[in-house]
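During the reporting period the student researcher (J.K.) took over the structure-prediction task from the postdoctoral fellow and processed the backlog of single-chain submissions. One of the processed entries is reproduced below for the supervisory committee.
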Amino acid sequence: MQRTRTTEKTVKRLVLIDDHPIMRHGLAQLIRAEEGLDVIGEAGSAREGFEIVRKLKPDLAVIDLTLPDKNGLELVKDIRAVHPATQCLVLSMHDETLYGERALRAGARGYVMKEEAADHLVTAIHKVISGGLYVSEALNTRMLEQVSGNSRAKATGMDALTDRELEILELIGKGVATKIIAAQLSISARTVEAHRAHIKEKFGMTDGAALVRYAVQWVESRKKV
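J.K. obtained the following structure tokens:
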């Protein structure tokens, strides 16, 4: 869905990419209440989001990580590669400690938890549009420690997984079969199995059933947060 509205050149143009219409509606109201900001388009999937960015060329795309057809991190990478003038801000229910740095590495300029949207989203939008980065104070401290050399321990557990491995782990936890994962991610079943093997190795597992149990428990635990 997209809308056209006559705006002044100083108004910054945004699109919302989230698969929940009610969430998009609430975010749009919040953003439009701020002078100088306008929501010119909405999308409920990664494919629709990429297309609306291509057509409208907004200043900023606000992107959820969990989309029905593609992980939001991959969408951020696609947008930044093809439409570098459009900045990306991730707004997600998922824990910033796990996804915040990944989002920035993918090309996003900020990360806001959905539960904090009412208090921080508009501030984050202004900061990103003005050329800055927006993350929580806790994540900012963590990144500064890494840069300063105070946290150089080898990545372990979830932190050791690549974005693709993390995406596959989540799909395994949701009970999605290997062939369906392959089709959904446009990769071969053999590649999915290779990723599974790498995940098991990083977790120190030798049993595929143990990986499935872990993945299911992890997905369930995130629903309770």
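The committee noted the following: The chain has a mean pLDDT of 88.
J.K. will present the remaining backlog at the next meeting.
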